[in-house]
Amino acid sequence: MSTPGIKILEPGLLSTLQDNGRFGQTQLGLSNGGVADKHSYYWLNRLLGNSDNAPCIEITGGSFSFVANSTLIFALTGAEMPLSINGHMVERWRSHLLKAGDRVDIDFAQRGVRSYLGFQGGFAQAKQFGSVSTVLRDGVGGIDGGRLSRGLQLSVAEFKAGSNWQHLRLAERHRPRFSNSARLRLIPTYQQHWFSRLQQRRFFSSRYRVSSQADRMGYRLSGAAIQCQAPKPLLSEGIVFGAVQIPPDGQPIVLLQDRQTIGGYPKIGAVLSLDIDVLMQTQQGAEIRFVPISMEHAHNQLHLNKARREAITLEYC
Amino acid sequence: MTTAQFHVQLASEDALIVYAEADSIATSNGLIRALDGLITAELGQVVIETTPSYGSILVRFDPYKTDHFHLRQKLKHLASVCVYQEQTAEQLVTLPVYYSVESGPDLQRIAEFAGLSVEEVIEIHQAQVYQVFAIGFAPGFAYLGEVDPRLALPRLSTPRAQVPKGAVAIAERQTAIYPAPSPGGWNIVGLCPVDLFSPGSNCPMPYKVGDNVRFEAINKQEFIDLGGQL
């Protein structure tokens, strides 16, 4: 009998192991990494009764297939990727039981970009520098720092027959709806005074498009160019998650999970993390707008979101 | 012993950035390293990570355990008790570099900017001992300073989509080596054949912040013999 877990039949365009990310390693220059859409990941762990940092597979674009080697419980959240077990369509955003030999197919995304595949008990994968998160650019985390490949076996805690398990489901009204546009709330931060009032007005009143250079490191946008009067020379300094950097060509870049830890371009502000979950489900051509909010408003939103989420009860099914 | 002015500013929903102002970058960098030690010792319960750089430190906090008002007060207090004692560098690391127009596509532009020959640019770049002010951007990427002001060419206006592994580059008065292929906006002067990040090793990189680094010019054959690839 093979070890409890799964065998990957088709890895799709880009699939990696992720958790919440790698923190406290910036003195080595290591990026945080971590799931791109934390909201979908939160629900994945709730549906499976997992800890809030359990390793999962982030599937980008779709077309991922695997076979179960043992009895397992799994769920799929995030982008709308049609899901089937042994050729029969099943619902996403709920847990399912698999028996050894069952085949699961996850089709191309119809809406959204990234989905999250998890198993009850999580993957038994060793952490590197404190996290399982794969950062391809750093060659760190996951399986030898790389993407998941065809034929790979991953071990998962086996579901014990007779265990007291009830399948859980997130009601449809609570699931995120994905579209190819996003309105990003942005906190104007410490370098905003390097941008004139006219430039700030241009930034907040313009429609931007996600360019072809959009990945887990950063989303480069195209649209109205923003000019900056930064003092020179500007020394490289730490970059926050969600920072909106304006390089000399004036085209904004939103810096994300796999961003460099340090950089030297001026920043007009930082996007509220809750809206980055939405951004990371958009792709090339998506329409992006920015709305300014205060730091106090941002904190209120974080706390409200946490309270609302925790108040939602999952349905038994 | 130096005390200095610190400024605390808002960086995001869960981060503040502290700047140290002193008469030299080496001193402000020393102060930042001292402050980093205090933050780790005193605020470990609410601080998720710190990213120290030249004269600044980014402090990321848990927004469900504290807020920016409270943390700002704590940081101001730590800054007021922060002192820095100048120390000698722990080690001197020598790194070989194959400088050439072939391996350094921006060498000619720097020479034109400086009004010097390519050979003079190479000589000036390798004549100096640099200090590691920060490690970041990518694993093993050491920010070294300060470059001779004559070579201080600004970053490219549009970053390159791909800079090769080992690229030795200049941006303003900073110089560094790209440990892995990556997008980047610095001006490339040569290639270094040494691995600067080995994630499996007990000692994943050859230097740490505070160390000194010097470059030694090598020819194409030596570069290839040391495992370099063009």
Describe this structure in words.
The complex is a heterodimer of chains A (317) and B (230). Chain A has 317 residues and is α+β, with helices and mostly antiparallel strands. Chain A contains four helices and 22 strands. The radius of gyration of chain A is 20 Å and the shape is elongated. Chain B has five helices and 13 strands. A seven-stranded mixed barrel of chain B has the order 5-12-9-10-7-6-13. Chain B has a four-stranded antiparallel β-sheet with strand order 1-2-4-3, covered by helices on one side. In chain B, helix 3 crosses helix 4. The longest helix of chain B is centred in the first third of the chain and has 18 residues, at 25-42.
Query: Uncertain spans of chain A, ≥5 residues at pLDDT below 50?
Result: none
Q: Could you give a short account of the major beta sheet of chain B?
A: 7 strands, mixed, barrel
User: Which residues of chain B form runs of ≥5 with pLDDT under 50?
Assistant: none
Most extensive interface, chain pair and sizes: A-B, 51 and 55 residues
Question: DSSP strand (E) fraction of chain A?
Answer: 25-35%
Structural class of chain B: alpha+beta
The whole-angstrom Rg of chain B is 19 Å
The strand line-up of the biggest sheet of chain B is 5-12-9-10-7-6-13
Mean pLDDT rating of chain B = 92
Helical element count of chain B? 5
Radius of gyration from the alpha-carbon trace of chain A, in angstroms: 20 Å
User: What amount of the residues of chain B lies in strands?
Assistant: 25-35%
Outline type of chain A: elongated
Number of strands of chain A: 22
Total DSSP E strands of chain B: 13
Shape of chain B: elongated
- The side-by-side strand order for the widest beta sheet of chain A comes to 13-20-17-18-15-14-21
Quote the distance from N terminus to C terminus of chain A.
Answer: 31 Å
Query: Quaternary state, please?
Result: heterodimer
The N- and C-terminal alpha carbons of chain B lie at a distance of: 47 Å
**Largest sheet: number of strands, sense, barrel closure of chain A:** 7 strands, mixed, barrel
